[in-house]
Design brief:
It is a single chain. This protein is of the alpha+beta class and 231 residues long. It has two domains: 4-58; 67-228. It has helices at residues 4-37, 40-58, 216-228; strands at residues 67-71, 74-81, 86-91, 94-101, 105-109, 115-122, 125-129, 135-141, 145-149, 158-163, 166-171, 174-182, 185-189, 194-198.
Length: 231
């Protein structure tokens, strides 16, 4: 018995030490968690980091390559940038800037800051209007064509249809022009000549160039809006 007793004491002693260490570690861990929970700066940093990671994976970057449009060998116009909040256009040596405003509208300003036109968006397209709200052109977007008319009823519209890898522009039974693609080279044949530009985007928008009834600045605005993909 005397020989076994010291061993029992040793076991009891070491068991007590281990138990005490466990309590100490548990207490320290609880304080650390409590400090973290009560520290708004730490929590905010963690939330920000998580938010940044989420944003970087859910919001891919998008770029727009400026369009330099020529009619035969002469400059016709340029669309330098397209965005939800701002669009920049140059046509006939006139700088036009479109800015998103209230009530789902984009207003277009000249270099002097005057509103020259506005775009009102609808589910099936948009309307290009004068600053006072008078309709200029109604653009209706469908799955296989775009209709452009100067009246709210969309009567006798210009139609841009895609067929066999190219777009044709017609009104009633008359063909006004066609759009063809060769790699990133885009050609738009019209009664006035051939428009040329470089683009990797396959769009109905380029067909608008052949509609001479629409003033040049309005054509450029409609093209920009179609490229934006507004509905």
């Amino acid at each position: 018995m005397n020989k076994k007793t010291p061993l029992l004491y040793k076991v009891s002693f070491f068991g007590g030490v281990v138990l005490m260490m466990s309590f100490l570690l548990s207490a320290c861990g609880g304080k650390s968690n409590e400090n973290t929970a009560n520290n708004p700066v730490t929590n905010q940093e963690n939330a920000t980091t998580a938010s940044n990671k989420s944003t970087s994976t859910t919001l891919p970057s998008s770029t727009f390559t400026p369009l330099d449009i020529k009619l035969d060998d002469k400059s016709f116009g340029n669309i330098a940038s397209i965005g939800e909040n701002e669009t920049t256009i140059t046509v006939k040596n006139q700088n036009i800037t479109g800015r998103l405003s209230k009530n789902e509208k984009t207003k277009y300003y000249n270099a002097s800051g005057d509103v020259i036109a506005e775009v009102k968006y609808k589910e099936t397209g948009f309307k290009l209007r004068k600053p006072d709200g008078t309709l200029l052109w109604k653009i209706k977007v469908k799955e296989n064509k775009v209709k452009i008319s100067d009246n709210a009823e969309n009567e006798n519209p210009y139609e841009i249809k895609k067929k066999e890898g190219r777009y044709k522009v017609k009104r009633m039974d008359k063909e006004y022009g066609k759009v063809t693609f060769d790699g990133n080279q885009v050609k738009i044949k019209s009664e006035k000549g051939t428009y040329k530009l470089e683009s990797n985007t396959d769009s109905y928008a380029y067909g608008v160039l052949v509609i001479d009834e629409i003033p040049a600045e309005h054509r450029m605005i409609i093209i920009a809006e179609l490229l934006k993909g507004k509905r």
